[in-house]
Amino acid sequence: MNTVTMKFGGTSVGSEGAIRNLVGIVKEASATQRVVVVVSAMSTVTDTLIESVKMAAKGDKWEYTNLSAKLKDKHEDIIKHMVKDGKDREQVLLAINKLLAQHLELCQAIQVLGDVTPRIMDAVVSLGERLSSPIVAAVLRQNGVNAQAVDASKLLRTDDNFQSAHPLWDESQNNVNKHLLPLIDSGVIPVITGFIGGTHNGIYTTLGRGGSDFSAAIFAAMVNSDDFIIWTDVDGVMTTDPRIDPRAKVLPYLSYTEVGEMAFYGAKVLHPKTVQPIISRGIPIYVRNTFNPAHPGTRIGKEMKPSEGIIKAVTSIHKISMLTVSGSGMLGVPGIAGRAFLATARAGASILMISQASSEQSFCYTVTDNQADLVKQTVEAELAQEIAQHNVDGISITEDIVILTAVGAGMRGTPGVAGRVFTVMGNNDINVLAIAQGSSECSISFIIPEVDLKRAVIALHELALAGNGG
Questions:
Q1: pTM (2 decimals)?
Q2: Alpha carbon distance 445, 449 (integer Å)
Q3: Which residues, in sequence order, are bridge partners of residue 322?
Q4: Domain assignment present for 247
Q5: With contact defined as beta carbons under 8 Å apart, do 398 and 433 qualify?
Q6: Does 263 map to a domain?
Q7: What is the dihedral of CA 235, 238, 242, 247, to 10 degrees?
Q8: How many domains does the chain divide into?
Q9: Judgement on whether residues 330 and 427 belong to the same structural domain of the protein
Q10: What's 64's domain CATH number?
Q11: Which residues, 6+ apart, have CB-to-CB distance to 7 below 8 Å?
């Protein structure tokens, strides 16, 4: 019998109507195949938990207590409306109240300390998924589905890099083989907490914001799913952000490489790491709409399929800054770029895009806005001698910019694609500050002023629509 792993995002478990849709989807699928369900926290819950931590750190007991009460009301309302009186309701209410009591205890500890460690933050934000999983499982049971809540911290072993933990693959696979697969084989549908894992000592970790997609992909791979479906609140992966250009269309097919580029460069439908566990297994990924389950959505697979147009999609990343390292004395001097990048890593920043002049007298790269000042200071300290000797003029920061990326397998090996894209930018008077093309050859990225974003997206999107029925 086939196995399908389904991940339901926050909006897909965030209301009675959404959970009813989830039940219908799972019941239909379970009639013909084995089903594994992975759930996010209910919509807005993670944000509420984070806000409660901030209030606790400020010593505002009234506010974090009020936020905890709101969480209690939100979850209890779902239970009381969707789980009938009886033992199941009593047990799930008991479980929810126990978790919310832990929330208050953690907030009280934060208030006493006046500070929040990454470990405590993970303990708090992991509560969102731990609250939603038993509720979804109980509602499924009420509707004749043999479901059981499963805490991912018992399965997904990670290191102790709190707030952005890394999975320990072999140990996690062993846990899945020992505990999860027998449960599935017995006919139970597990409802697993997304986003979270656990250390060897059983301490909760999280995989980073948006990590529910990633953890669901890990479970899909480890149970050797035939399909992996991400249920969300849109019909699929779109040609661009419809808030910028309402003409955006759903893409029926993308390759792993294309969707990876899109996710990294700003597409919000998938977490950038989602495809990593899936690629080696060749499992098809589907992005579909919980609120419109009849729509086929977007299929994601191995094969690169060029579209009829020049590009398939346009994405963008906001709130970034560009650091430029320049100096006539850099010409022919080895190691300066490498040292700058290592210093950037020491500052805890990820580099989103790199561009270097052919003269070797300057290079630039981007980091998020909130990291830019620290990165600048760290790189200046690393290159202090070169700056003192005037081989490097210094490090400058350019703000109020965005990365705009055109994605499409048709770029690979097709002459003139870059020229067409550059011509569109020039014809629309877009001020391009830097350009980079990835080794995958299926994306071209531009750094442009933020004020030019909408105009640039609409112009490039014309090329995507030309090959997608536009």
A1: 0.90
A2: 13
A3: 366, 398
A4: no
A5: yes
A6: no
A7: -100
A8: 2
A9: yes
A10: 3.40.1160.10
A11: 37, 38, 39, 40, 194, 212, 213, 216, 217, 228, 229, 230, 231
